[in-house]
Write a structure and sequence with these properties.
By secondary structure, the chain is an alpha/beta fold. The chain is 42% helix and 14% strand.
């Protein structure tokens, strides 16, 4: 494995997608989450037979919705266990090509792709800046790259950041735990924290309140299955980095992207740029 990868994190995601293979995720909910990620993706700027890549495809949950829109989609992940799940989920997508590789070793020609995306992946590698540059190198001139990187809560008040710091202490402890502790613990977090808070936010929204500032507001209309998946994702990952919008923009510019646009909505931060 190349240097820009964390073995424990890769193993953790392999276990996550094996446990939550997204088979219980409804089509409507998958579409809803996908719409949020891809809200700034410039579909009109890529050809109908476009060839692109999904870097860190995991279970293939987003590739399922991208594949029908493009000519060929390269699904790349460093976890063989995750790719076994992706192969099953994408079995009916004849235009998907599976690759077992890390971001350091993307098995595609430089300047060969019409688009690329990497959602929730590059904040889990040691050198996020280098990871973005590796993705950009595979794009044709003018091709878009969509990124989702964990935000540094730079658009949140101090008390929100304080709550996150408390939760991050829990992540640091749980992420090194064996599966027999981690799995029930994250299910308990989903049951006792995610679910009640998210549904309370939903109730407040129904009552006419503005809820975007509330913790876990992004989950207010999502299923318990998604909450369990994300609780394991959040608290079971050893390596996590977070970035401000300004830091993400700087890394994208340094990697050779221009015309950068950030989504103003959850999840933060989603951004798209075009290779210069």
């Amino acid at each position: 494995m190349n240097s820009n990868a964390d073995r424990k994190t890769i193993e953790g995601f392999g276990r996550e997608w094996s446990r939550f293979d997204q088979s219980d995720l409804s089509d409507a909910e998958r579409q809803r989450i996908w719409n949020a990620y891809f809200s700034v993706f410039p579909w009109a700027s890529i050809p109908p037979d476009a060839e692109g890549f999904d870097l860190g495809c995991g279970s293939g949950r987003w590739a399922l919705l991208v594949a029908p829109r493009v000519g060929r989609l390269h699904c790349i992940d460093a976890s063989d266990d995750a790719l076994n799940v992706a192969r099953r989920n994408l079995a009916n997508c004849g235009n998907c090509v599976i690759h077992h590789a890390s971001v350091d070793d993307i098995p595609l020609g430089d300047e060969s792709m019409d688009f690329g995306y990497s959602l929730g992946v590059l904040h889990h590698v040691p050198d996020t800046r280098a990871g973005i540059a590796s993705c950009v190198a595979k794009l044709k001139r003018g091709a878009p790259l969509l990124l989702y990187l964990y935000y540094a809560l730079d658009n949140r008040p101090w008390w929100f950041r304080f709550l996150w710091k408390v939760s991050d202490l829990g992540r640091r402890m749980l992420s090194s735990s064996p599966a027999w502790i981690l799995n029930p613990a994250t299910t308990l977090i989903a049951c006792c924290i995610y679910f009640p808070l998210a549904r309370a936010v939903r109730l407040a929204e129904i009552c006419g309140c503005t809820v975007g500032w509330m913790p876990l507001s992004a989950y207010r209309c999502l299923s318990f299955y998604t909450m369990r998946t994300d609780a394991l994702d959040r608290f079971g990952t050893p390596l996590e980095q977070r970035f401000t919008a300004a830091q993400i923009q700087r890394m994208m510019v340094d990697a050779g992207l221009t015309r950068i646009e950030f989504s103003p909505n959850d999840p933060y931060w989603c951004a798209v740029g075009f290779r210069a």
